[in-house]
Structures are given as C-alpha cells and as structure tokens.
Amino acid sequence: MRRIILYVIAAVLIFLLISAFAGKNNDLDGDSAVHFFYLAALMVLISSGVFAAQRNLGETFRNLSLWVLIILGLVTAYVYRNDAQNFASRITAGLVPGRAANIVDENGFKTVILYRADNGHYQADVTVDGISTPMMIDTGASTIALSFEDAERLGLNPSQLDFTATVMTANGPARTAYVTLPEVSIGGITRTNVRAGIAERGKLGQSLLGMNFLDTLSSVNFAGDELRLRD
C-alpha cells in the first residue's frame, strides 16, 4: 500500500512538471526540457534521501510534502517569470520619467510602453550607439532630429558637417546636416543604419524620435496616457 501511494505521488509530480513546461503543442522545447529533467532529477534525489533517512511514515510524508511545495514554487516562478518582469518594468516606467517599460508577450514580440510626461509629450531615453539620449516622440518629424548639443555629446562632430538642408522647427527654419546612425534603440527595440538630421546650434531644444524610426514598427498606438510601440 505504501509503495502504491508513492507511485501515485510520483506520477502526479511528473504530470505537473510536464504541464508546466509543455508548449502549445504539449511538447517540451529544448530549454524547457533541460529545466524539466533537472527539476525531476532533483526531486528524485531529494525524495530518495528523505525516504532513506526517515522510518516514520507520517514524518516522511510531511517532509516530502514540504519539498513538493518548494519544487512547485520554483516551477511556478519559472513559468511566470516573464509576467513578473513585465510587471516590474511597467512599475519602474511609471515612476521614472523617460523610462520605457519593456513587455514581451507569449509569442516573444516586444512592446515598449511610454507614459505621458507632465508637459503632455511622450519622452524616452533613446540609446544611440550605446549612449543614452533623451528624445521626444514626434510623429510630425519625418526623421530623427538631433540637437547640435546632443550630436556633440554623441561624438558626431557637427561643427565639421555641411548644413545644406533647411527644415522647419519650433524655433523657425533651421539648417540641417544629415548623418547615418549605426544603431538606435528604445527599450528592447533596436534599429541599425538610421538616418538622422542634426540641427544647427540653438535651433532645436530637444532631440526628436521621428517617423523614419517609428515607421519600422508594426504598430504605434496612443491609449490614454500610454504610447505603445510594438516591434
């Protein structure tokens, strides 16, 4: 009778582990299989040690139940790790101005969420070639527009460029020089070889993330105080 009970417990544990790690087609992928067999082996090792060390059946089952709860807790934490990361990211983005919340859905698609600033605009810390640069999201700008000062900080040497184009800014017409940025990232979304205009000194107060970046996204949605950028 005791052996039958142990077999039943083992079967239930294996079923729970497989259910937790199985994909949509009830198959274990590579990473999930590794974690499953690791936990299963750990479970067997711990259980065998417990049963070998304990002679009292009641005490044995109490110890085994404790380890079952621990293992199930670890499995649950692993399965819902993305949800926990997404939740933490949104909390941080809501508290830190310009901080983007990075959300990854069940299919692996990335979504960046920005929250409206007190001035009514959406601002983000955009990484240009590894350097964080504060920008305002501007659907009215055809390209990324960098202020002269940001271009200097990024090492683009704007004083040596030819400002041959003219664009309209909030401060009126401004001469612009165009460059190609090797890498531009916002949150977990990255694009390479992105064209950008550099405004002449004093003509642009803040750099802008324009449509030549936004048009590469699958969707750009405004909802209340949120702006969602989907890769």
UniProtKB/TrEMBL annotation:
Pfam families: Asp_protease_2. Gene3D superfamilies: Acid Proteases (2.40.70.10). The keyword Transmembrane helix applies. Coiled coil: none annotated. One of its GO terms (biological process) is proteolysis. Its EC number is 3.4.23.-. Keywords: Hydrolase, Membrane, Protease, Transmembrane, Transmembrane helix. CDD domains: retropepsin_like_bacteria. GO terms for molecular function: peptidase activity. It comes from the Bacteria. It is an enzyme of class 3 (hydrolase). The chain crosses the membrane at residues 32-52, 64-80. This is TIGR02281 family clan AA aspartic protease. It comes from Rhizobium setariae.
